[in-house]
Structure formats: C-alpha cells, structure tokens
Amino acid sequence: MDTGAAMDAKADAITKKLSAEMGCQIDYRRENSLHKFRMECDPPHWLYMSEEHFEDCAERDLTSEIDQLGIVRSLLESTKSRWIAITDAGPLDVDSKYGHGH
Q1: What tens-digit pLDDT sequence spans the chain (102 residues)?
Q2: Rounded distance, CA 54 to CA 10, Å?
Q3: What is the separation of C-alpha 35 from the centre of its chain, rounded to a whole number of angstroms?
Q4: CB-CB contact of 39 with 24 (8 Å)
Q5: What's this model's pTM, rounded to 2 decimal places?
Q6: Residue among 98, 74, 73, 97 nearest 85 (CA)
Q7: What are 27's strand-pairing partners?
Q8: What single string gives the DSSP state of each residue in 40-90?
Q9: Non-local CB neighbours of 59 within 8 Å, separated by 6+ positions
C-alpha cells in the first residue's frame, strides 16, 4: 500500500499531465474511495480512478495509461461534458452520479 506522500506524488503527476495536455485548470479531490480529477475546460470533464487501481499502479504507469487509453484525445474531441472512470477493469463511461455515491 502506498504512503501518503507517494499518493500525493501520483495525484500531482496526473494533475500536471492533464493540465498541460488539456490546457486548463485541474481540480483534484480524493473522496468516496475515488481519486477525482475535474478538468475546468469548456466543456468541463471528470476523470475518476478507483482507490484500488490508484494504489496498485506506479506513477509512471498511471500517466502512461492515460496516454494508452486515449483519454485526453477523447475528451478534447468531445463537445459535451464526459465522466470517465479508470478501474482495474479498464475505462468506463459513467455519469455525474458515479462520483457522488461511490
């Protein structure tokens, strides 16, 4: 299991990556067993990662996974807000309720 510092480093690396590639501010929160990244773009988007997946992967693996799954490209091409959850089972399109009661 990761220490708090390692988890903070992972979240920081993902936040910086998303901010640089999306060209907008990123709001990060950890709640309800999820790591939540809200991209303050037009339109806004959300990326969720399960606690288990976040803890099980190294920082480099998490940022590489975002590239491999085409998350940024997919969000930049979207004209509507999207909510994407990355889990051990892969990426899932979810809705705004996913991050609240999870």
Answers
A1: 445 666 689 999 999 999 999 999 999 999 888 999 999 999 999 999 988 889 999 999 999 999 999 999 999 999 999 999 997 777 899 998 886 754
A2: 8
A3: 7
A4: yes
A5: 0.88
A6: 98
A7: 38
A8: -SSS-EEEEEEHHHHHHS-HHHHHHHHHHTTHHHHHHH-SS--EEEEETTE
A9: 6, 9, 10, 13
| Residue with the two structure tokens 């994407």 | 84
Phi-psi region of 33 (alpha: psi -120 to 50; beta: other; left: phi over 0): left
Question: Tokens 């339109």 appear where?
Answer: 43
Sign, CA dihedral 14-16-18-20, equals negative
Q: Pull the structure tokens for residue 17.
A: 């990556």
- Is the distance from CB of 79 to CB of 42 less than 8 angstroms? no
